[in-house]
């Protein structure tokens, strides 16, 4: 049996309501802070999102984003080829 808590359920419900058609949509989803109590992108005080990894199989690039991914500030970009 899976343990489900209010935090996870709230974040899952929010994620299911957002668009997921493009890379920008996904970055906006993982950077979403719409819910004050249970945001998808967490900034504390107990839980933090440290970074976001984006693996683009078409471009063969791994991108690490520090900070909110909605701002698209790439910190590191690695070639996968």
Task: Produce a short descriptive summary.
It contains 2 helices and 3 strands, in the order ααβββ. The chain is an alpha+beta fold and 81 residues long.
Descriptive notes:
- It is a single chain.
- The protein has helices at 6-17, 23-30, and strands at residues 51-56, 61-66, 74-79.
- With 81 residues, the protein is α+β, with helices and mostly antiparallel strands.
- The protein has one domain (6-79).
- A 3-stranded antiparallel β-sheet has the order 1-2-3, with no helix packed on it.
- The mean pLDDT is 93.
How many DSSP E strands?
3
Helix content: 10-25%
Element-level helix/strand string: HHEEE
Unreliable segments (pLDDT under 50, ≥5 consecutive)? none
Number of domains: 1
Question: Characteristics of this structure?
Answer:
81 residues, alpha+beta, three-stranded antiparallel sheet, 2 helices, globular
């Amino acid at each position: 049996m899976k343990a489900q808590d209010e935090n996870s359920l709230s974040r899952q419900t929010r994620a299911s309501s957002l668009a997921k058609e493009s890379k920008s949509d996904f970055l906006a989803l993982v950077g979403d802070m719409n819910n004050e109590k249970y945001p998808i992108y967490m900034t504390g005080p107990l839980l933090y999102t440290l970074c976001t990894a984006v693996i683009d199989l078409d471009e063969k690039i791994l991108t690490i984003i520090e900070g909110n991914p909605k701002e698209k500030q790439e910190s590191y970009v690695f070639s996968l080829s």
